[in-house]
Structure formats: structure tokens, C-alpha cells
Amino acid sequence: MRGILLTGALFLQYYVSAAYIELLKEDTLNMVEQLVEFGKDEKDTSVWDELAEMTDLYGNRMTASVQYSRSAEWVMKNVKKYTGMTAWTEDVNVDYWKRNEESVHLYVPTRENQMVNLPMLGLGQSVGTGPEGIEANVIPVSSFDELQTLGNKTIAGNIVLYNADFVSYGENGQYRFNGAFNAEKYGAVGALVQSITGYSLMTPHTGTMNPAGIPAAAITVEDSKLITRMYNRHMKAKQNPDIENAELFVAPRVKLVMNAQNYVNHTQQPNIIIDIKGSEKPDEIVILSGHFDSWDVGVGAMDDGGGAFCSYGALKLISRLPRKPKRTIRVIMWNNEESLSRGADGYFAAHKNELDKHIFAMESDIGNFEPWGIELMSKNATLLNLYTVFGNQYLPTIGGGNVTLVDEPPNVDIDPLCAYGIPCGGFVTLDKYTFKNPSTPAGFEGYFRFHHTEADRMEVLDPHQLRRNAAAMAAWAFMIADQ
Ligand SMILES: *[C@@H]1O[C@H](CO)[C@@H](O)[C@H](O)[C@H]1NC(C)=O
Ligand SMILES: *[C@@H]1O[C@H](CO)[C@@H](O)[C@H](O)[C@H]1NC(C)=O
Ligand SMILES: *[C@@H]1O[C@H](CO)[C@@H](O)[C@H](O)[C@H]1NC(C)=O
Ligand SMILES: *[C@@H]1O[C@H](CO)[C@@H](O)[C@H](O)[C@H]1NC(C)=O
Ligand SMILES: [Zn+2]
């Protein structure tokens, strides 16, 4: 997940009592009921097991890396085990951003080791510092307004630290995306960003940033607060040199080294596409999707191995049914979601003559915990009412049947399709740890504890939740495709 989530989105909950309507024809309902039953089979841990095998073998799937290619080959080999599926790849040009050696050291002269090594992660797309690095004082700010108030006089020649506490990804993400660009305007030589999370165990969180001429990196919440306290004590001591320990309160000063390199259009790598062809209208398409690329830390189990493999798992469940859906159900594992959306843009361009044949596009890219439902973007009120009834009537036993209306594309990869006017949905789950309704602004706090960190490993995910997600997504796809 990269994009800003649902800021200012419109949340409408529709409760339609529809016990009296039999909306699905019996033949469709039978298939949907079987998919729901598959979701209850406690012995089936295949979605988790397969994702574990692939990620154990190849590690992360950073776009343009060799691991991305090997993982994609693993899927293309795996898909041969299933009958009734047609799989192919569609290449797109991708840039390769390599972080290489990087570090932040904080000068604390009272410690035995005066250069304290801080865990950090350079932000994707950042320029490097060169091997010599840069050394400068750090000026903490909690907002862009504060940056502007301090202005060139205070900022020029220094490194800006954005230390805002976690509110939501949308609110805090602006400092990661635009922090360096804005700081540069006031003559800053670098930017540090407090990692975007409400809960930290000294884990830095990376993520992409908008182009800027100065380097930028994420540090942990703990170190962001340490630097802020040092700065505040230093300012106090400057105003009043008589306070106790004033001479010990040095200005926070760091050495930032980033050998990051960006290789434009380094290689061509695929979106992975897998179809179960429809029996009556094979040219009409319902998409289930997640992105296949990940960051270069952890293994991208949660972001977005879970979304990609629950989509794929859904298709495998559908392949076990006694008959095919009327329309084609297409799984897409998108490339390059985490930085430049070349996968989404490439698909849109390559399929521009058949966009009108796309009936629905779903993506799962905000965690796969207990199924909750879909965030629907559609101007069609009939469709909203219909899906609300579908979800409530056919999915309550495994969850995933709630429907909420949003007025912005719910996920990055389906964004072009949603914007084109294809009804689309983000598949969302009850948040890990907080179990909050996902349509509240901070409803994804548990997800963001792991997002873009070394800790995004298989242990974040639960095999039974993944199976239920796959079954719920399969049921949605089948209901829509069989209409
Ligand atoms: C701030 O400093 C930058 C870099 O030194 C300079 O380009 C810019 O014009 C300055 N802006 C203001 C408002 O002084
Ligand atoms: C890289 O690829 C993109 C998209 O495929 C293209 O628009 C761009 O012109 C290419 N850039 C270079 C430097 O080749
Ligand atoms: C709205 O959705 C309904 C139900 O799927 C469909 O029958 C109808 O054609 C749609 N209307 C438009 C304008 O797309
Ligand atoms: C809707 O979400 C709630 C949890 O917020 C869950 O208990 C319920 O089963 C869901 N409903 C459906 C129809 O999936
Ligand atoms: Zn993602």
C-alpha cells in the first residue's frame, strides 16, 4: 500500500433488510454457498503455505529486482497445477532504486560511543548523499506550517526532522511524500521523517517519496522523540545558559550516509494475469487483485503478498466448483505499486480497447485479517443496493459482506480503472490488534505497525484468515460475474 487512504472519503453504511428478496438465482447461490463452505475448511491453509514457500525461497519482491522475476516465475509454474486457468504475463518498464549502504549516526558527546547508530531506512526514490555523507544539525518540525514559520533563517544548511505523531496514513504520509521537497525550498540539506506508525519497537518504515534534490530517510519513533528532546533542551540552554547541565545540551547533529542509486527503466518485468474464462460472456471481466511488488525490507508478506495470494487463492477455490462463472474472473498481481504504478498504467494502456468490458475491479491492499467487506466506488445506486443485499444475505457467516461507499479510488492499482468509471472496490478486513471498523480514519493502525518494515514477514498473517479472505473474495467475484 502506497497511496493516501480515503482522506475525505464519504462513508455511507446501507442497511437493507432484504430477507424477502432472493436476488441470486438458485444455480448461482449454490456456487456461492460452496465457496463459503470452502472458507470454513479449517484444514485448508494453502494460501498461507504457498505464500510462505515463495517468500521463504526468494525473499522480498522489490520491483526490478531479480527476486521479483524469480517470484513471478514461481507463480507461473505454480499455476500449471490448476486446471481451467489461463495465465500470462504482461511486461512493463520499471526503474530500479537500490538503497545500498546507508546509515544515520547521532552525535551524543556524553555517551561512551559518541556517534550513536540509529536504525533507519532511506525513502524510495531518494537521491543519495554520496559516500562521504552529509553532517548537519537537525531542526525538528511537527508540520509544514511550522517549517514555513521557521523559514530559511533557521532551516538553511540543516536537516529537517518531521516528528508528527501518528494520526493516520493519509495525515502523516504527506511528510514522507513531500517532506524533502518542501524542506529543500528553505535550504535544508536533508530530511528525516518519523516512521509512519502508531506503535514502534525501534522499527524504521520506508516508503516512496516525491522527487526532491535532497536525500530523505525514515528513522524510528523513539529516535525522532530523542532528537526532539535534545533540540528542546538545547534551545532552553541557549536562552538560559545558567540552567543545570546547560553545557551538556548540545544541538542534535547527525551524519547521514546514503549510497542510493536509481536506474531509470532498468528492466522490463511483468504484471501477472490469470483468468478463469466465463462460460457465457468470456469477454466480460471481473478483476480480483493485489500487488506483487514489495519493498526491499521484510518479504512483503502483508503488503501485499496477502492481497495478491488471497486473490489467487480465490481463483483456485472457484476452479474447484462444478461449473464456471458466466463472465471471466481475472486475477491480476500488479507490478510497481510501491513507487511509480507502471503496472497499473501499463495494464490500462494495453487494455484500453476493452475497458468497457470490465464489469468490476477489486483490489486487496490494506491487510488480510478478519474479512470485513468492500469499499465500493460506484455512482450506480442500483448496484450499491444490490451489492449491499448480496453481502448481507450471502456472506455473514464468514464475514467480508459489509459494503461501504467511498468517493475516491480505494486502491492504487485499480485507480485508473475506477477513475475511468468501472465500478470498483477495495477489499478490507478488520484491523489487526485494534479490530476497528476499517472505515474509520485510524482503522488501519495495526496494519501500519508492520507496513514497509523488516517485520513484514509471514508471522503477521494467519492461515485461517487468509483462507476466509480468499473465500469471501471468491464469493464476491462469482456473484458479480454470474449476474
Ligand atoms: C530559501 O533558500 C533557498 C536555498 O538557499 C533559496 O533558493 C530560496 O530562494 C530561499 N527562499 C526564501 C523565501 O528566502
Ligand atoms: C521510461 O519508461 C517510461 C514508461 O514506459 C517512459 O515514459 C519513459 O520515457 C522512459 N524513460 C526513459 C529515460 O527511457
Ligand atoms: C447499475 O447497476 C445495475 C445492477 O448491476 C445494472 O443493471 C445497471 O445497468 C447499472 N446502470 C448503469 C447506468 O450502469
Ligand atoms: C460486517 O462486519 C462486522 C464486523 O464489523 C461482522 O461482524 C459482520 O459479520 C460483517 N457482515 C457481513 C455481512 O459480512
Ligand atoms: Zn501495498
UniProtKB/TrEMBL annotation:
Subunit record text: Homodimer. The monomeric form is inactive while the homodimer is active.
Peptidase M28 domain segment(s): 271-476
UniProt KW keywords: Carboxypeptidase, Endoplasmic reticulum, Glycoprotein, Golgi apparatus, Hydrolase, Lysosome, Metal-binding, Metalloprotease, Protease, Secreted, Signal, Zinc, Zymogen
Major subcellular site: endoplasmic reticulum
GO molecular function: carboxypeptidase activity; metal ion binding; metallodipeptidase activity
Gene3D superfamilies linked to this entry: 3.50.30.30, Zn peptidases
Domain of life: Eukaryota
Enzyme category, top tier: hydrolase
Membership in a protein family: Belongs to the peptidase M28 family.
The protein's name in its UniProt record: Peptide hydrolase
Subcellular location: Endoplasmic reticulum; Golgi apparatus; Lysosome; Secreted
Transmembrane segments: none
Residues of the signal peptide: 1-18
InterPro entries: CPQ, PA_dom_sf, Peptidase_M28
Listed GO CC annotations: endoplasmic reticulum; extracellular space; Golgi apparatus
Gene Ontology process terms (BP): peptide catabolic process; proteolysis
EC number, as in UniProt: 3.4.-.-
